[in-house]
Design goal:
The chain has 463 residues and is an all-alpha fold. It has one domain. 69% of the residues lie in helices and 1% in strands. A two-stranded antiparallel sheet has the order 1-2. A hairpin with a 7-residue loop joins strand 1 and strand 2. The N and C termini lie far apart (58 Å). The relative contact order is 0.13.
Length: 463
């Protein structure tokens, strides 16, 4: 036992001064048992996340447990060296980053859920179904709508909405449903890449203050290229025949249009607070949520319960804002907590500095950022982008735009590479699968590299 403790003391890292202004020291744990065990814990936790579809284990559970264990190990080592303040400060820093992201997303999810409850998305789906498009027209229509809706909503909600249309009209046509779902995934991810509201990765980059809100829109053309190249090729394999006519009816509930307007006002408030008042965007989002709460109060006070007997689409119960909050994707929000704390812990240990040195110093920023997109197809783009933001390599604005683009669209290369792809595998089970998507990966990769070349060309002034 004495030998064990003696060995542990020898293996304790040598204290190294962090920043000149720091009151405590930073320990390099990358070669220490604590660092290696923490790395193994994260790999194990994320393996369980990837296997969520087969294990039916919610993805938030393993990463939340992993985050707690990793920081407990770090705190134990630092306490053993008489250092406590730096660990506490690092954890609080990561918690603050998570709180801003979580509250921002909670407001956005509440608005999306409110629009769902008011029948906005059902009405759009009904309109598409009633238009009696042929298969190829439907292929293009759902793809284009996915591309333009995802920057305002999010790629997951957009993909599920368009998939519902495809399944309703596809009438069991497996080849068409498969191709249309691939097209929707690529379109939703590409559309979300040029807007801070379209993808978690772009939101993180914007909240970090690396890129200004209006600068993201310089990625519109590369995003269009990313979508249009594979879409054109795949469209030749979609027949022009018409599916059997289907009639669907759905109308928006009272106040639906006003909820949409309030959401747009909320987005404008978040942008204005950040750009002109230099406040975190989440303050603007929470201010916008208060507008929805007040409007919800108005809807509740003016609710007419008897109308539902006359109109099947009328409100059966009054609007409740807190029910919409409860319907937020809490598993996803808690997953972000686990990811941010896990990656933050590995960064505090020193692993991200090693990765940054390898990728951004030895490979070069362009190659490193292209690799980030490819990695995002295997590992979720959220921990990958958070790792990049934690490393904070010295790059030009053009390179930050490049990594935003690649992290956003790289997940389209595989069905498991994005939330949209994973969700559609569940929604179109048996028709859209990992291998049906993999068959078209070379075509999607063509669009991926074409978008990179387009960005390097038209946005060269940012480099």
């Amino acid at each position: 036992m004495k030998y064990f403790f003696f060995s542990a003391i020898i293996l304790l890292p040598t204290p190294v001064a962090a920043n000149p202004g720091d009151t405590e020291q930073w320990l390099d744990l990358t070669a220490h048992w604590a660092g290696l065990v923490s790395l193994l814990i994260f790999i194990t936790a994320y393996t369980l996340v990837i296997a969520e579809e087969f294990l039916h284990l919610r993805k938030s559970k393993p990463v939340m447990l992993g985050a707690g264990i990793i920081w407990a190990i770090i705190a134990f080592i630092y306490a053993s060296n008489g250092l406590t303040q730096s660990v506490e400060a690092a954890v609080r820093h990561n918690l603050l980053e998570y709180a801003e992201l979580m509250l921002f997303l909670l407001v956005a999810m509440t608005y999306i859920n409110s629009m769902k409850e008011r029948g906005v998305f059902d009405s759009l789906r009904s309109w598409l179904v009633d238009k009696n498009f042929d298969y190829r027209q439907l292929f293009w229509m759902t793809g284009i709508l996915a591309f333009f809706i995802s920057p305002i909503a999010d790629n997951l909600t957009t993909a599920l909405l368009m998939c519902a249309v495809i399944i309703a009209v596809g009438n069991g046509n497996k080849p068409f449903i498969s191709l249309a779902c691939i097209n929707i995934v690529v379109a939703a991810n590409a559309g979300g890449a040029f807007s801070p509201f379209g993808d978690i990765t772009t939101l993180m980059v914007w909240q970090k203050g690396v890129i200004e809100f209006q600068t993201f829109f310089s990625l519109i053309v590369p995003s269009v290229v990313n979508y249009i190249v594979p879409a054109i090729i795949m469209s030749f394999f979609v027949p022009r025949t018409k599916p059997a006519a289907i009639h669907s009816s759905a109308t928006m509930k009272r106040g639906a249009k006003r909820v949409i307007i309030l959401f747009l006002i909320t987005i404008a408030t978040a942008v204005s607070f950040h750009n002109f008042l230099h406040l975190p965007p989440v303050i603007g989002m929470l201010t916008g949520l208060s507008l929805l709460q007040l409007f919800g109060y108005y809807l509740k006070r003016t609710h007419l319960p008897g109308v539902a007997k006359v109109d099947a689409n009328a409100e059966t119960k009054p609007f409740d804002i807190f029910s919409r909050v409860a319907e937020a994707e809490w598993d996803t929000l808690l997953f972000f907590y686990g990811v941010i704390l896990c990656v933050g812990g590995l960064g505090f240990i020193g692993y991200l500095s090693m990765v940054s040195e390898l990728m951004y110093q030895q490979w070069g920023p362009t190659n490193a950022n292209i690799a980030v997109g490819i990695i995002s197809a295997i590992v979720d783009n959220i921990p990958v982008m958070f790792a990049v933001l934690t490393m904070m390599p010295q790059m030009s604005e053009g390179q930050w735009l490049l990594v935003t683009l690649t992290a956003g669209v790289g997940g389209s290369l595989l069905s498991i590479g994005s939330a949209a792809g994973v969700a559609l595998m569940g929604a179109a089970q048996g028709k859209y699968t990992f291998f049906s998507h993999l068959k078209w990966t070379p075509v999607i990769a063509l669009g991926y590299f074409a978008s990179i070349v387009t960005h390097l060309w038209i946005n060269s002034h940012y480099f």
